What we know:
This protein has helices at residues 2-74, 84-101, 112-121, 126-133, 137-148. It is an all-alpha fold. Helix 3 (112-121) runs antiparallel to helix 4, helix 3 crosses helix 5 and helix 4 packs across helix 5.
Amino acid sequence: MILFLLILSIIFNIAAFLSIYLLFLRQNRLISKEVQHEKTLNEIEQTFTGYLLEMKDENEQFLKQFEKISQTASIPAQPDDLPSESVMTVKTTRNLAAAAYKKPQKNKPESISDRARHLAHQGYTVEEVARELKKGKTEVELMLKFRQS
């Protein structure tokens, strides 16, 4: 009986050592993943920093060129100094640059359901709205019901 208990104890000790060894390996793998993740984050941060610095330099160069063009355009052109084509080119370039920095206007096309709701608010009947939008009466009713909820 003692021999059986001794063998059982040895088996449990071996199982415990194997479990501890496996946990140690997993912990080391997790630590190496964390180090690799930090390296990746640092590389991404450096990449973005470089990209932002490059954009900043390009913007500064663009502003310098724009100021240079603005100063050239603000000087009254004398007919003998500058030909009229170069003045037009400067003005065109300036207008293009100004148009590039304008915010795009919201020309959002109105959807059919929005138009149906708008017409219904104006007092049109469902049939008139359907005729106006060239849609079926049931379809317009459904659009208005879905918009209400």
